[in-house]
Every structure is written in structure tokens, then in C-alpha cells.
Amino acid sequence: MGCAGSSQSKADGTVKKIRKPKPWKHPQPITKTQLMQLREEFWDTSPHYGGRKEIWDALRAAAEADLTLAQAIVDSAGVIVQSSDLTTCYDERGSKYELPKYVLSEPTNLIPES
Description:
By secondary structure, this protein is an alpha+beta fold. It is 32% helix and 11% strand. The chain starts with 29 loop residues before the first strand and ends with a strand.
């Protein structure tokens, strides 16, 4: 037993479907290389934010996959999706996982490499 919010299923029995994040803008224009570096730094340090490494690994795989595969990954890992864009998730033990938008999609102000 748990609280009503501790289940992946909604009241009607359906699982919360993952969707692409809404368009967003980085505070300053950024290149693809800089974006990739930000992502690597986040994933390298993510286990230090708490939670389990295997859930972080599953979230990384889901963030880098297409929506159908991402849905299968989070479902099989037992990830409870709070925000359908994957910015806030929980594991079955209640640990919270927060993902910044820059690991989930590209900003609207991405600039070409110089």
C-alpha cells in the first residue's frame, strides 16, 4: 500500500505517457558541442544527487531514446513519471530524480559551431 500518488497508473488505469519537453531557451546561445558537454557533466555527476545508479542509467537511456523506447525503458525500470516530459520522476522506493531540460531536448537558441 502507498499513497495515491505513489503509483505510475492514473485513476483510469492508464500509465502516464512520456512526451517531448516543451520548447525552451538556454540563458545564452549555445553550440551543440557545449550542449553535449553540459549533458556529459550532468550524467557523470547524477548519482551524487541521490537515488540509485541503475535508475539514473535508465533515465539517461530514456532521455537519449525516441519516445516509444523511452516509455518502455521507464516502464521496465519501475520509474514513476511525475512530469510527462521526464523532468521529475521517482523510483519505487520514493527517491526523486530531477532532469534538467538540456538533457532531454535541444534549446531553441542552439547556434552553429564556429
